[in-house]
Amino acid sequence: MVLLLCGVVVAVLGVALVVLVLRMLLAQAVARDIEAARMRAEWEEVI
What pLDDT, in 10s, does the model give residues 16-30? Predict the structure, then answer.
């Protein structure tokens, strides 16, 4: 019973960690996309 409970806790923590990492990667990708759009706008002004 205790082993089953520990397994469930470890699984929940694993899923939480994966979700956290994916959210961080998504935020990084969004920031990079915003930066690219800004640089593209600056480049359009130059041309």
Answer: 999 999 999 999 999
Residue 43 has pLDDT above 80, yes or no: yes
Q: In whole angstroms, what is the distance from residue 1 CA to residue 22 CA?
A: 32
1 three-state secondary structure: coil
Of 32, 8, 12, which is closest to residue 20 (Cα–Cα)? 12
Element (H, E) at 7: helix 2-46
For the chain, the maximum distance between any two Cα atoms, rounded to a whole number of angstroms, is 69
Token look-up 């915003």 returns 34
